[in-house]
Amino acid sequence: MYLDGKIYRKAFPEPYSGFLGNKLPYRENILQRSTQIQYFVNLGYLALDWVITEEGPKLLEINARAGLKIQMALQVPLKQRLEKI
Fold first, then answer.
1. Which helix or strand (DSSP H or E) is residue 29 part of?
2. Among 84, 32, 37, 78, which Cα is nearest to 60's?
3. What's the farthest any 2 CA atoms get from each other in the chain?
4. What is the rounded CA–CA span in Å between residue 74 and residue 61?
5. Which long-range contacts (C-beta less than 8 Å, at least 24 apart) are formed by 61-64?
6. Is the per-residue pLDDT at 26 higher than 90?
7. Would you state the pLDDT for residue 76?
8. What is the structure's pLDDT at 14?
9. Looking at the chain, which terminus has fewer C-beta neighbours within 10 angstroms, N or C?
10. Alpha-carbon distance 24 to 10, whole Å?
11. Beta strands 6-7 and 2-3: pairing type?
């Protein structure tokens, strides 16, 4: 995880320690909907911004030109992910 210019590989960053061990609610639903959106929008690579509300997951926006910050945060370059596909 990348946070505040530091890379955390062996320990979870303290500000987010409350998330450790928790499961993302509606994960399967979000993945299924994201796949459907990708199919219908047909933009190739895109990023979807989701929030989880009391009523369930809500899509905020579709980004056709997603930034590189997520690659930095995950420490996995896009090329490496695409090669797996």
1. helix 27-41
2. 37
3. 39
4. 21
5. 62/37
6. yes
7. 67
8. 78
9. C
10. 21
11. antiparallel
- Cα of first residue to Cα of last residue in the chain, in angstroms, is 23
Contacts of 59 (CB under 8 A, 6+ apart): 33, 37, 48, 49, 50
What contacts 24+ positions apart, CB below 8 Å, involve 57-66? Answer: 57/25, 57/26, 57/29, 57/30, 57/33, 59/33, 62/37
Pseudo-torsion of CA 38, 28, 69, 61, nearest 10°? Answer: 50
How large a percentage of the chain has pLDDT more than 90? Answer: 29
CA distance to 19, 53, 72, 82, per residue, from 13 (Å) = 10, 25, 16, 28
DSSP line for 59-83: EEEEETT--SHHHHHHT--HHHHHH
CA pair distance 74, 70, nearest whole angstrom: 6
Contact (Cβ atoms closer than 8 angstroms) between residue 49 and residue 59: yes
Phi first, then psi, for residue 61 (nearest 5°) are -160, 160
For 48-66, what is the mean pLDDT?
Answer: 89
